[in-house]
Amino acid sequence: MDRAISSYTSSIRSLIHSREQIARSTLSVADPQHALLISMADTPSQTSLPFATEEVAVIKPLVASIGLAPVDGGGHTVEVLKHMRSSRIMHFAGHGLSHPLDPTKSSLLTKDWETNPLTVQKLRQQSLQEHSPFLAYLSSCSTGAIKDHSLADEAIHLISACQLAGFRHAIGALWEVSDQHCVDVARIVYETLKEDGLTDQAVARGLHRATRHVRDSSQSMITRSASTTDAAEDALEDQNTKEKLRDLEREFEAFEIHDREGSVEDRDAVPVGSRRRRQEPLGSFFWVPYVHYGA
């Protein structure tokens, strides 16, 4: 990933259709001027996502700097679908659910997801092409997953549903993502859009930068952790060495051998315990699940 920026598409036909559309880097008067931001820190019957609120708070000024007015989605399915029709960007920070049997029932967990879920089927039924929505950012788990392996080639998931609804680009995840790391990924994506504009290249480049940042940060944390472990082990070895020296001195005293009869060099040459073989920590792979679908 250091040499290439990866993007995906649900089908060749979808890619051709996207490429045939004119990519615009600036907004026109006819384009939607809103960015729909949905933060689901608390979802019924689900664990809380404390960083979802922070994520939306971080990207809110960034989308405003792009020229879009942030809109609170409310959190209910009907409200999300309503605001989606007039939004250039939709950002959902919350739980995602990949249905184990029917991928059309995979859903974004809104406040009323238990009675009226925001499913793949409902997203695919939207016709947003007329308003040229630019980006659907699904900051949720498993939005690109299909658990029924017999349908793996059909690309029936939440990411492709957003594209079929009319979004030119979609960002999601193939499996679980870290609540905390989602904040950094989203921030860097929108910072890139701020710098480069709403272009096809900017979306893919932004996600590429974000995933590399999370990867490199994770590796730095592992290195620091390893250094701390080394220091602790060295301290333990020093303590063990001192204990061995004391034991050896007691043995010398028992045989009436005193330090003045030897040389300093000899004493320094007392063997120390060999370094124990460490198990290398597993790397952090929080950056891996993220994918970009688009032109």
TrEMBL record:
Residues 217-230 have a biased composition (Polar residues). It comes from the Eukaryota. Residues 7-294 form the CHAT domain. Residues 214-240 are annotated as: Disordered. Pfam families: CHAT. InterPro entries: CHAT_dom (IPR024983). This is CHAT domain-containing protein. The lineage of its organism: Eukaryota, Fungi, Dikarya, Ascomycota, Pezizomycotina.
